[in-house]
Amino acid sequence: MLDGLRFLPMLHAVAEPILEIQKVVKRFDGFTAVDGVSLQVHAGETVGLLGVNGAGKTTLMNMILGLTTPSSGSIHAFGMDLRTQRLEILRRANFCTTYATLPGNLKVRHNLEIFARLYAVPRPKAKVAELLALLEISHLAEKSTGQLSAGESTRVNLAKALLNDPELLLLDEPTASLDPDIADKVRKLVRHLQRERHPAILYTSHNMRDIEEVCDRVLFLHAGKILAAGTPAELTHHFQEDDLENVFIKIARAQ
Amino acid sequence: MPSPTVIAALLTRYILLYARNPMRAFELFFWPLVQLLVWGFLTMFLQKQGGDGFPEYITFLIGGIILWDALFRAQQGVSISFLEDVWTRNLLNIFAAPVRMIDYIGATFAVGILRVAITAGMLALVASLAYSFDLFRFEWGLLAYYTNLMLFGWALGIVSISLILRWGHAAESLAWAIPFMVQPFACVFYPLETLPPWMRAISTAFPPAHVFEGMRASILHGGFGLREFTIALGLNALYLALSGWLFASVLRSAREKGLLVKTSST
Question: In B51-193, which residue ranges form alpha helices assigned H by DSSP?
Fold first, then answer.
């Protein structure tokens, strides 16, 4: 039923992409988690990855970060091959995921300053103070990271992800487990970044409002394959649904 | 070459983790101190019962306890630092940051040096007060003993984290067990000739056996055993190279099998 839907128009066909993934496959002991995915993300563009649990979104993110090696295919960022120039790529990229936390025993300020030094950020203390202010969490600076609420932790993780002013930003379910108020603040922050710093952003979420508000383009993943791609408006129009949530349900149930 | 900036940042983090967790700092002092007191006083008692036939017993034992602790602390510096990142689910943040493995391992080595310096200082002081044992009697030889034992401790530490990365949380206990698997062959508290021939053959393949033989020879006859030092150093070079190769292989395999993410996020 969905054949032919994956070839909706792609933006930025001419400009050099920040991230370029070509026919990436990842197999684990006979199970194919990612199956021939190709995508590009350009500067200033936010691409949403949608899919049910186990669709391959996080595996794809992990491969982009070099945490998992693709079985085949290639990943390039900033024109560099991830296999040979991983560190150069990671210096210009960053990420935020619910699967990693910062050491709970340390103060928020200490954690962020240490990561600022790992990313070779000039004037780390000033940068941390700037980001804490941007994320409206300056009052948490001296608090132990382990004592933070879920919403506070997410914003601290986002601060970590912005320390090196990344040109490529991977956000893996950044609003998961957040209340609507904090989730709204996170979306506003992403929009602020889009306006002010123009990074290439790859964004996964189960929250369709996130995707509709912040993503220029959406890719639907299912069983490791891209089933459909397009802008949120194109997809809702194509599937003759009112919103992206219904598109998601339609695609998920069609499989 | 390792990056001093990255190593310093990681080392700062480990120091802060210790400073902000009193139980971690407590563990650093408690066990070595208990071991020194219990075994030290037991030996004094046995020596009194047996007369003064062999007064070096106490010196052998105290020297063995203090020097063995260097190996153990260096191994723990690597393995527990790695486990701290696993326990705090911070490993993904580190491995997805522009941190080379040589810098990461270098920082854990530096943690080992700090741990050894702290516990050795404390044990030397207590041994001096309780048993009139002067650790500095070995003069420059002491530096040579510490160098070889720490190098071997680091190699064991790298083997420990390789096994944890490969087998996950089930292998965590190896972080503590691995040095004690080696200990019977290390001849810490008894001479090499005490062992049966098959064990002796294995012992001579381990650097600590040569270090402790050298230490005992130095106590009995004075001087410094250059031959034992050189053999131990050569063996350490081999073990460090092998452990580095093992870790690189396991890390590559962990990236292929997704074990790095699994270990880090569960």
Answer: 56-87, 91-95, 101-131, 140-167, 174-186
Residues 6 or more apart whose CB falls under 8 angstroms from that of B182 comprise B156, B206, B208
Least Cα distance to B66 among B114, B113, B135 occurs for B135
Give pLDDT tens digits for B10-44.
Answer: 999 989 988 888 887 788 888 889 988 998 888 88
Residues in chain B with pLDDT values less than 50: none
Closest CB to B255: pick one of A67, A100, A103: A67
Q: Could you tell me which residue, B129 or A254, shows the higher pLDDT?
A: B129
CB pair distance less than 8 Å for A67 and B8: no
Residue scoring higher pLDDT (A117 or A5):
A117
Mean pLDDT, rounded, for A53-79: 94
Is A87–B98 a contact, with Cβ atoms under 8 angstroms apart?
yes
Q: B92 and chain A: CB distance < 8 Å anywhere?
A: yes
In angstroms, rounded to a whole number, what is the distance separating the alpha carbons of residues A151 and B250? 36
Do residues A121 and A161 make contact, with C-beta atoms less than 8 angstroms apart?
no
Higher pLDDT, A175 or A88: A88
Domain ranges of chain B: 4-265
Mutate which of B11, B17, B86, B88 to test chain A, going by most A C-beta atoms within 10 A?
A: B88
Domain boundaries, chain A: 1-92+198-214+222-255
- The answer to whether A103 contacts B97, with C-beta atoms less than 8 Å apart, is no
pLDDT at residue A5 greater than cutoff 50: no
* d(CA B182, nearest CA chain A) in Å: 32
Partner residue opposite A105 with nearest CB, options B12, B21, B255: B21
- Which pLDDT belongs to residue B196? 95
Of B16, B256, B264, the CB nearest to A69: B256
**Chain B residue closest to A58 (CA)?**
B261
Q: pLDDT at position A10, please?
A: 47
Judged by CB atoms closer than 8 Å, whether chains meet at B9 and A65 is answered as no
B256 touches chain A (CB under 8 A): yes
Fold of A1-92+198-214+222-255: Rossmann fold (3.40.50)
Spatial separation of the C-alpha atoms in residues A119 and B257, rounded to whole Å: 27
The reported pLDDT for the residue numbered A2 is: 46
B90: which chain A residues are within 8 Å (Cβ-Cβ)?
100-103
Position A70 pLDDT exceeds 90: yes
Nearest to A19 by CA among A208, A158, A219: A219
Smallest Cα distance from B23 to chain A, Å: 12
3-state SS class at A31: strand
